[in-house]
């Protein structure tokens, strides 16, 4: 499987100008899509010879070729989606990059002759050796690197790494334990063993600062330098919230049996052969009055982390139907006691008299409804793993979610 490692870059002024040229050359005008050969000949080879497009020669040719490949892939996916031959959600028509986009990126493959210097810098063709903040060691030689500039003006290097799931699976201990997880807003997650993880509510805590920055931006004259500075201030404020949430999701702390704090997602994967979660409709909930709290919770990102780790380490992640009445069913006797308002956090079963905590009872029902079967050796009998996403790098406020090359 492939994982992605992201690291912060610190290009100097000259290198930032060179990267800006590379970002600009990776953009294309929105015109009818020709063949790959025609694209390469017309938009690269012939264009470099003209006075109007001679600046294309100032950046690596690999950057230009990768831009064309991305365009070709986007159009193939779009046409395949129209024909119904492409699996997954329907792909819309490709949208050409703009210099006004909040996120800019260029990709360097192995034939671009980029390399890591002896001093730990990243040397790119026609850009130079860029300073990198390494937060961990790359396990293998990366197949490509993508340089990304985000809305806050920060630069990152994102590497694609190939790993061997069979080798990774041997790193986890054998176990036959199963756990159910109920995600919520009162608590970020409640486990079927009664463990509760508090929700940090990063956006709610930063609302006052964000509001002030947005008000200052609205008062600036459009097109002025002060407005550009204010826009950057707003982007950085939002980036701080996003980074804090991304750091929390893989690093949410619990107490292990020995009392040592360890990561939530790593503990769940390490100690359980099977993990059961509910198939939440995040997009649907985001259209309700709870939209801000739902987005702030980051459920989808957390489940994606569990998914790729389960795939990587040979565990089983199972999702149950979102319409399963986990909050209405007694986990002791199985009686469905009817719907309950969200403000009811504790209730007593009318059949057996058991007093239930709403979230803990739901987590137990999620575990039971998943129907996971685990063999004596700990191997999943009925696998239900979700395709892996990416590896988080951790530390230094590095964004590690599903942002791609």
Describe what this molecule looks like in 3D:
- With 405 residues, the protein is α+β, with helices and mostly antiparallel strands.
- 36% of the residues lie in helices and 19% in strands.
- The strands form four sheets. The protein has a seven-stranded antiparallel β-sheet.
- A hairpin with a 4-residue loop joins strand 9 and strand 10.
- The longest helix is centred in the middle third of the chain and has 27 residues, at 225-251.
- The protein is globular.
- Mean pLDDT is 81; it is low at 255-262 and 373-405.
How is this fold's topology laid out?
Layout: E1 2-10, H1 13-25, H2 36-48, H3 61-83, E2 104-109, E3 115-116, E4 122-124, E5 128-133, E6 144-149, E7 155-162, H4 165-169, E8 178-183, E9 187-191, E10 196-198, H5 202-218, H6 225-251, E11 253-255, E12 261-263, H7 264-271, E13 274-278, H8 282-285, H9 291-297, H10 299-313, E14 316-320, E15 346-348, E16 355-357, H11 358-370
Parallel strand pairs: 8-13, 13-14
Antiparallel strand pairs: 1-5, 1-7, 2-6, 3-4, 4-5, 6-7, 8-9, 9-10, 11-12, 15-16
Q: SSE order, as H and E?
A: EHHHEEEEEEHEEEHHEEHEHHHEEEH
Question: Can you list the strand order of the major beta sheet?
Answer: 2-6-7-1-5-4-3
Which class best fits the helix and strand makeup?
A: alpha+beta
Largest sheet, in brief, is: 7 strands, antiparallel
**How large a portion of the residues is in β-strands, by DSSP E?**
15-25%
Overall pLDDT level: 81
Number of helices: 11
* Residue share in helix: 25-40%
**Poorly predicted regions:** 255-262, 373-405
**Secondary structure: number of strands:** 16
């Amino acid at each position: 499987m492939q994982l992605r490692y992201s690291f912060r870059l610190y290009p100097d002024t000259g290198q930032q100008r060179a990267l800006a040229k590379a970002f600009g050359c990776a953009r294309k005008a929105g015109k009818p899509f020709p063949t790959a050969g025609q694209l390469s000949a017309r938009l690269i080879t012939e264009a470099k010879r003209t006075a109007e497009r001679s600046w294309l020669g100032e950046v690596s040719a690999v950057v230009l070729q990768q831009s064309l490949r991305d365009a070709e892939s986007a159009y193939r996916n779009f046409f395949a989606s129209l024909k119904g031959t492409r699996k997954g959600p329907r792909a819309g028509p490709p949208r050409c990059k703009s210099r006004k986009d909040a996120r800019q990126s260029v990709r360097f493959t192995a034939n671009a002759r980029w390399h890591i210097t002896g001093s730990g810098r990243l040397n790119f063709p026609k850009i130079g050796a860029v300073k990198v903040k390494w937060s961990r060691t790359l396990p293998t030689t990366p197949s490509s690197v993508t340089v990304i500039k985000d809305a806050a003006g920060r630069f990152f290097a994102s590497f694609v790494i190939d790993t061997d799931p069979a080798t990774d699976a041997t790193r986890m201990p054998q176990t036959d334990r199963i756990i159910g997880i109920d995600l919520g807003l009162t608590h970020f997650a409640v486990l079927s063993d009664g463990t509760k993880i508090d929700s940090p509510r990063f956006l709610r805590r930063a609302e006052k600062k964000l509001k002030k920055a947005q008000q200052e931006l609205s008062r600036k004259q459009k097109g002025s330098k002060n407005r550009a500075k204010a826009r950057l201030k707003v982007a950085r404020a939002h980036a701080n919230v996003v980074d804090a949430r991304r750091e929390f999701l893989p690093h949410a702390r619990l107490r292990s049996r020995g009392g040592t704090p360890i990561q939530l997602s790593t503990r769940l994967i390490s100690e359980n052969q099977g993990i059961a979660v509910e198939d939440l409709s995040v997009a649907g909930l985001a259209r309700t009055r709870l939209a801000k709290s739902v987005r702030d919770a980051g459920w989808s990102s957390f489940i994606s982390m569990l998914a790729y780790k389960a795939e990587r380490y040979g565990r089983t992640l199972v999702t149950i139907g979102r319409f399963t009445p986990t909050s209405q069913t007694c986990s002791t006797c199985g009686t469905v006691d009817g719907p309950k308002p969200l403000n009811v956090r504790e209730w007593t079963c009318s059949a057996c008299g058991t007093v239930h905590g709403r979230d803990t009872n739901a987590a137990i029902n999620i575990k039971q409804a998943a129907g996971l079967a685990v063999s004596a050796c700990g191997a999943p009998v009925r696998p239900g793993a979700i395709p892996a996403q990416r590896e988080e790098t951790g530390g230094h406020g590095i964004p590690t979610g599903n942002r791609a090359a």
